[in-house]
């Protein structure tokens, strides 16, 4: 009869000693950011009040932003846009009236030519 086989000496690395370790200390159990632990609240927000005061000082300054427009600037721009729109409307109306006048002249000329052609046929 054969002797009983020995257990292999190589145990592998995958499940080696999991029960011997403390929970939470395994490398796969934590993320990199959590390895340092959460910061205390007082250190996290210690500069918050100072930054808030600085922002409020510059809020109303004239040179703070070129993108902001005052109400007078907006009104001025709207008035200018209205003037331009009226001018364009007047030009379009004049052009339309001119085209109507030319069409009426052509129509009269064709009617005259038609009546002259009828007179010549009658002879």
From TrEMBL:
Matches recorded under InterPro entries: Chromatin_SPT2
Stretches with biased composition (Basic and acidic residues): 23-32
SMART domains: SPT2
Location of region: Disordered: 1-75, 88-123
Keyword tags: Coiled coil
Keyword Coiled coil: yes
Chain coiled-coil ranges: none
Composition skew (Acidic residues), residue ranges: 49-65
Domain of life: Eukaryota
Family, per entry: Belongs to the SPT2 family.
Record-given protein name: Chromatin SPT2
Organism: Macrophomina phaseolina (strain MS6)
